């Protein structure tokens, strides 16, 4: 059972006199009953007025008959001395109206001087319907939601001023009120709005889900109220690239912890003045957590890059593997954007055959998130029917964590290639037969010239596990290789002006070059075969 007791009476009267709303009064009285905050605003105001009319001298509770968690308790302490409470007399000048008629008059103030209306109209049914209309019109798929709220930083300044006022009054009663004992505004707001949103959206609130409904509040009338803190505590306000203003909520809270009470009172009225206008809901936004789709792709074109090929802002080729796959996923999942990743990459003129190359696509803020296995199969078929340059297989939904297995295999696993090789001098079968007998050939590969613009200069040790030759004619043969992942095959053939040692040219003692290259297999056992 949550209650206000006799010792709360002066606080209730003080805050009502200064223009504070009933729910903020409950917060400053450390009432922890969630259900109580959900009572209609007018009922709460009438209950507080009724509470003040009770003249019993005993400390028996005047209760609001609700069931909820126990109240936060005020700590009973002896004041250390008048100087600790008065702070050079700054707070003593505040007129404390004790007349009950004056209380009734002042309680009609429309906008709360502490929460700026957040715990008034902005948590009532009309506002909740406005939020839900925004959610429903965004057409998201969700089975539960998490709610977040962003409050103007000046609310922390107003709360601090109200706390100093209440702390003085508590000191006069021989009690103390720690700032941490006050129910946080954001916490009380969520207590009120969560059940209303749940009922209106017909889904539960759940702090662990990926679908987020967020509201950003602003109050232009009082925007500059925290600016004095930048002069008093300049170290707390550092410019940041991703922040539009230095006056963030966390910076203001840090400054309020640092500033001396007497300095605060020189710059800010205590109690805070009553504003003319409510806060504005600057933004009502929805966001779904990312969904991840994985599969394997085959690339059959020798004129198709893996990702868009753009140099100095100019597009070189009209499409890419990434785009041919992602355009269909984007449309079906109704996502804002995507991020493509794969287990390695092939050059624009290299085909990927066999069972394909593992890939994963992160779909950012998707509207649709639930797909059956049959729907994923149809989506795979749609991708495959759209182009003869690529094919995908094993298309499936995966977790973010599972993608790590693909990246682990990128450097650890082996890859199999088929290369068509040309030599300047004529060759016979016996000239290349010895290559079949070479096992675990160690290479030193200096970063190839062709990728030096995007890769750091280094010498990488790589291994050619096996080779098998297929003689074609006097100047051509096909070489099948099984290599360590990350081996530069083209450079192993032609030597890259001596930057890869040994190479096919040096082993055959003649000039060699590569005409065609195919990836036959990427030996990463992911994603699972369907």
Automatic annotation (TrEMBL):
GO biological process, one term: tRNA pseudouridine synthesis
Top EC category: isomerase
Location of the protein in the cell: Cytoplasm; Mitochondrion; Nucleus
One of the Pfam families matching this protein, by short name: Pus10_N_euk
InterPro entries: PsdUridine_synth_cat_dom_sf (IPR020103), Pus10-like (IPR039894), Pus10-like_C (IPR048741), Pus10_N_euk (IPR048742)
Domain Pus10 N-terminal eukaryotes: 112-286
EC number of the protein: 5.4.99.25
Keyword entries, A-Z: Coiled coil, Cytoplasm, Isomerase, Metal-binding, Mitochondrion, Nucleus, tRNA processing, Zinc
One Gene Ontology cellular component annotation held by this UniProt entry: mitochondrion
Chemical reaction(s) catalysed: uridine(54) in tRNA = pseudouridine(54) in tRNA; uridine(55) in tRNA = pseudouridine(55) in tRNA
Example GO molecular function: metal ion binding
SUPFAM superfamilies in the record: Pseudouridine synthase
Domain of life per record: Eukaryota
Residue span(s) of domain Pus10-like C-terminal: 292-523
NCBIfam families (UniProt xref): pseudo_Pus10arc (TIGR01213)
Annotated family: Belongs to the pseudouridine synthase Pus10 family.
Name of this chain's protein: tRNA pseudouridine synthase Pus10
Species name: Bucco capensis (collared puffbird)
Lineage: Eukaryota, Metazoa, Chordata, Craniata, Vertebrata
């Amino acid at each position: 059972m949550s209650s206000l007791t006799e010792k709360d009476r002066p606080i209730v009267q003080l805050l009502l006199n200064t223009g504070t709303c009933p729910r903020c009064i409950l917060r400053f009285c450390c009432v922890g009953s969630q259900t109580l905050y959900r009572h209609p605003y007018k009922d709460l105001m009438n209950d507080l007025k009724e509470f003040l009319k009770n003249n019993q001298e005993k400390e028996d509770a005047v209760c609001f008959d609700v069931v909820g968690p126990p109240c936060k308790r005020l700590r009973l302490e002896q004041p250390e001395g008048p100087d600790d409470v008065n702070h050079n007399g700054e707070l003593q000048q505040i007129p404390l109206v004790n007349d009950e008629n004056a209380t009734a008059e002042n309680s009609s103030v429309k906008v709360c001087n502490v929460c700026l209306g957040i715990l008034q109209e902005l948590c009532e049914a009309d506002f909740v319907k406005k939020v839900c209309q925004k959610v429903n019109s965004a057409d998201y798929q969700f089975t539960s939601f998490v709610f977040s709220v962003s409050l103007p930083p000046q609310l922390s300044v107003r709360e601090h001023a109200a706390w100093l006022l209440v702390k003085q009054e508590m000191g006069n009663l021989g009690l103390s009120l720690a700032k941490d004992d006050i129910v946080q505004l954001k916490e009380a707001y969520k207590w009120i709005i969560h059940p209303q949103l749940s009922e209106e959206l017909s889904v539960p609130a759940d702090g662990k889900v990926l679908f987020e409904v967020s509201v950003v509040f602003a109050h232009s009338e009082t925007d500059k109220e925290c600016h004095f803190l930048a002069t008093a505590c300049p170290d707390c306000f550092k410019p940041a690239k991703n922040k539009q203003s230095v006056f963030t909520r966390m910076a203001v809270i840090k400054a309020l912890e640092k500033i001396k009470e007497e300095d605060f009172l020189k710059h800010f009225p205590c109690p805070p003045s009553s504003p003319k206008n409510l806060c504005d809901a600057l933004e009502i936004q929805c966001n779904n957590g990312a969904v991840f789709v994985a599969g394997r792709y085959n690339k059959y074109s020798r004129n198709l890059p893996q990702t868009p090929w753009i140099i100095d802002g100019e597009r070189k080729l009209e499409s890419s593997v990434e785009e041919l796959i992602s355009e269909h996923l984007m449309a079906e999942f109704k996502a804002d954007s995507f991020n493509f990743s794969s287990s390695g990459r092939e050059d624009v003129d290299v085909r990927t055959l066999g069972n394909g190359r593992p890939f994963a696509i992160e779909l950012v803020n998707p509207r649709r998130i639930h797909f059956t296995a049959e729907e994923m199969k149809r989506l795979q078929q749609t991708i495959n029917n759209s182009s003869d340059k690529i094919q995908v297989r094993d298309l499936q939904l995966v977790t973010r964590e599972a993608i790590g297995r693909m990246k682990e295999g990128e450097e650890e696993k082996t890859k199999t290639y088929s290369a068509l090789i040309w030599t300047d001098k004529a060759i016979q079968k016996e000239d290349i037969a010895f290559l079949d007998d070479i096992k675990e050939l160690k290479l030193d590969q200096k970063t190839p010239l062709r990728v030096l613009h995007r890769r750091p200069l280094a010498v990488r040790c790589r291994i050619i596990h096996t080779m098998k030759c297929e003689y074609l004619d006097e100047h051509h043969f096909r070489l099948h290789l099984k290599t360590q992942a990350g081996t530069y095959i083209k450079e192993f053939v032609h030597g890259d002006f001596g930057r890869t040692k040994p190479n096919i040219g040096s082993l055959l003692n003649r000039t060699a070059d590569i005409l065609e290259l195919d990836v036959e297999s990427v030996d990463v056992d992911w994603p699972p075969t369907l």
